[in-house]
Hints:
By secondary structure, this protein is an alpha/beta fold. It has helices at 7-13, 39-46, 61-74, 85-94, 111-123, 137-141, 166-175, 188-191, 237-240, 251-255, 259-272, 278-289, 291-310, 329-335, 351-361, 391-396, 413-425, and strands spanning 78-82, 102-106, 127-131, 148-154, 180-183, 201-205, 219-223, 315-319, 343-348, 366-367, 377-379, 404-407. It has a seven-stranded mixed beta sheet, with helices on both faces. A five-stranded mixed beta sheet has the order 8-9-12-11-10.
Amino acid sequence: MANQFKPETLCVQAGWSPKKGDPRILPIYQSTTFKYDTSEQMARLFDLEDSGYFYTRLQNPTNDAVAAKIAALEGGVAAMLTSSGQAANFYALFNICQAGDHFVCSSAIYGGTFNLFGVTMKKLGIDVTFVSPDASDDEIIAAFLPNTKALFGETISNPSLEVLDIEKFARIAHSQGVPLIIDNTFPTPINCRPFEWGADIVVHSTTKYMDGHAAAVGGCIVDSGNFDWNKYAEKFPGLCTPDESYHGLTYTESFGKMAYITKATAQLMRDLGSVPSPQNSFLLNLGLETLHLRMRQHCSNAQKVAEYLESCEEVSWVNYCGLPSNKYYALAQKYLPNGSCGVISFGLNGGRDTSIRFMDALKMVAIVTHVADARTCVLHPASHTHRQLSDEQLIEAGVRPDLIRLSVGIENADDIIDDIAQALKA
Ligand SMILES: *Cc1c(COP(=O)(O)O)cnc(C)c1O
C-alpha cells in the first residue's frame, strides 16, 4: 500500500488490497499449510528462490497483511509479527547478536524487557550494559565495547514514562557503527515515528494500544531498511556472510534492504517459532483500523486526568510528559507534539500503603495487569509487574515503590476523574 497516504488512511486501508471478488475485509487464513501443484514449485520456496506461502510458522497471509500495515505506519520497508512483545524484543536483538556479543540499553525500560536482557539473554552469552537515557554522549559511548552490536531504548518508558532523546541515541549508535533499536509501544506510530529521527529498527508490543481492546497478545519488528550492514560486515556476520542453514545464502546480497526482516523470518522464526495465530492478527488488524481515533482520545483524557491529579492535595507527585512541570516536557514537545500516550504515573501522600488503599477504593477503574487499552485501569508495579526486581533495580528502572500506574482509557474523562475523586476521599 502506497506510503504517501497519511497515517489515518494507512490505519484503515494499508496491508490488505482485495482484488475482484475477494473478501472486502482481511480474511483469516486459518491454515497451517498451503497447496502446490508440483514438487519443483515447493522446492523453490524452500530455497527462498520464489516467494509464496508453505507453512504458517514461516509466513501466513493474514499475518503478513497486518505486518505490512504496521510497516507502512512506521514508514519502514518490512515488518514481521511475533506472538508477543517479548518475542519481538528478543528476536530484534538475537537477529544481530550471538554468544560473546554485547549491546547497550537505556535503563528506563519495561520490567519484562529488563529481565529478558539482564538475566535470560546473559545466560545465552549475550551481555548488556544499562545506561541512563539522560546521560551525556560521552557517558553512553563509554559503555560501548568492541563486541557491541546495538543500542536499545523505549520512546516513552513503561512505567517510568521517561521520554527518550531519539536523535541523541541515533547519533551515538551511528558513531559506534551499530543500529538503534526503539521500542515504540507507548506512543505508537500515530504519535511518533522513530525512523524520522534516525532509529533503524522499531519494535512493538502490539498487545497495548495497537490491539487496543486487551484481546490478543502480540508483537512486531519493523526495519527502516536504512542501516548499512555491509559497511560493518565484520560486526554482522549473520547478515553479511553465508548462512549454512540456508544453503550458503547471504541475506544482504540476496535481499538488500529486506535482509534483516528476511533473516528474522527465514531463520529465527523457522527455528524458534514464536508465530502469532492468524486469528490474533485479525483482531490486531481490527484494532489498528481505529488506532488514530483512540490515541487522540487516550491523550486528551490523560491530559485532563493528569491536570486534575496535579491539583489534588492528596497527590504528592504526578508524572505525565504533557504537563509543563514535567522533566520531559521539552523532549515531548519535540518528539510527541500531538500527544504522548494515555499512561500517567503518580504517588500519594502516605506512600506505598495509601497507594494500595486508594486502588482498592476505585469502582469503575479496574486493577488489572494491563496497560494501554480502551478501559481505564491501574496497577502498582512494585507489588505487581516489577515484583521480581529489588528496590535497587526498581529505582534503576525508574520505578518508585509508591508509584501508581494509571492507564487512562477512552471513556468520558469526567467519569474517570469522578471515580478517582471518590477513591481519594475514601
Ligand atoms: C508490554 C510491553 C512489552 C512486552 O510485550 P508483551 O506483548 O506483553 O510480551 C515490551 N515493551 C513494552 C514497552 C511493553 O509495554
